[in-house]
Design brief:
Layout lengths: L3 E6 L7 E7 L9 H16 L5 E6 L20 H20 L5 E5 L2 E3 L1 H7 L3 E5 L3 E3 L11 H11 L1 H10 L3 E2 H6 L5 E3 L1 H16 L3 H14 L13 H4 L13 H11 L7
Parallel strand pairs: 2-3, 3-4, 4-6, 5-7, 6-9
Antiparallel strand pairs: 1-2, 7-8
Length: 270
């Protein structure tokens, strides 16, 4: 099963509240390629429906999202063109749809919030987490970097210091630490998380929807992310090197070893 996104309209018996659940049984809701496409389609539908006033995004079975579905990776990651298409079209297509959504989005986070989970959570407006949640992007263990736009997104929202620790040292943070770093809006117990999300979603749905959409447009404009093509105006030496061809590592031995070791359930040898 490739996973999916369950949709509950008018959740909590409240008109205008959509509850979305990332579901990938047995994989801590890791994002498959089809799930990225579904994420894009769902948030485009939310944006087009003027009746929606609030979206609550959560994961199934005690976890938010553990990253990408690594079982799919050998089928495309070792070819630079396919790798670029995956990140720039599939992954970023889903993330951009969330970022472009003018409806307030609440992330309810428990369990694992890793890699792709961090990226999706970074697109949300308000982030509530259980005190047992864990946050990171330990892809250095898999032998590849985070794609440029995805790294820019996480760095901008979680902070440069946190992003560097996650990406360079594979550090994993707990919820209180992420609250202290300003990534989270609130931390509560796992038992309280659902009711806290419900209360916030219902409250938002009762506020002026036009004001919410205009506020999101304003905030998005003020915090417009820098796309890879624009790096040339900021760091010409950087764009002249890595960022000009950020997926050239696709067929590298290190990349293959990291993913193969994970799938073989052994420690990689870099």
């Amino acid at each position: 099963m490739a996973g999916g996104i369950a949709i509950e309209r008018d959740a909590y018996r409240t008109s205008g509240v959509w509850a979305l659940t990332l579901t990938h049984t047995g994989k801590f809701n890791a994002m498959s390629r089809s799930m990225w496409a579904e994420l894009k389609a769902v948030f485009e539908a939310v944006q087009a429906d003027t009746r929606v006033r609030c979206v609550l995004l959560r994961g199934d079975q005690g976890h938010f999202c553990a990253g990408g579905d690594i079982a799919e990776y050998p089928g495309f990651r070792f070819d630079a063109a396919q790798l670029e298409h995956f990140h720039e079209r599939e992954v970023w297509g889903g993330l951009q749809a969330v970022l472009d959504c003018d409806v307030p989005i609440i992330a309810l986070i428990e369990g694992n919030c890793m890699g792709a989970g961090m990226e999706i959570a970074s697109c949300c407006d308000l982030r509530l987490a259980a005190d047992t949640a864990r946050f990171g992007a330990p892809i250095a263990r898999l032998g590849f970097p985070m794609a440029p736009r995805e790294a820019a997104l996480v760095g901008r929202v979680a902070g440069a210091t946190v992003a560097r620790a996650m990406l360079l040292a594979a550090e994993v943070f707990d919820a209180p630490a992420m609250l202290g770093h300003g990534f989270l809006t609130r931390v509560c117990t796992a038992a309280e998380l659902g009711s806290a999300g419900q209360e916030l979603a219902v409250r938002i749905a009762g506020l002026a929807p036009q004001a919410a959409r205009l506020n999101k447009q304003t905030l998005r404009t003020l915090n417009e992310p820098v796309a890879p093509a624009e790096y040339a105006h900021i760091a010409p030496d950087l764009i002249a090197n890595e960022l000009r061809d950020p997926y050239a590592y696709a067929d590298s031995a290190e990349h293959r070893e990291g993913i193969t070791a994970f799938l073989d359930k052994r420690k990689p040898v870099f």
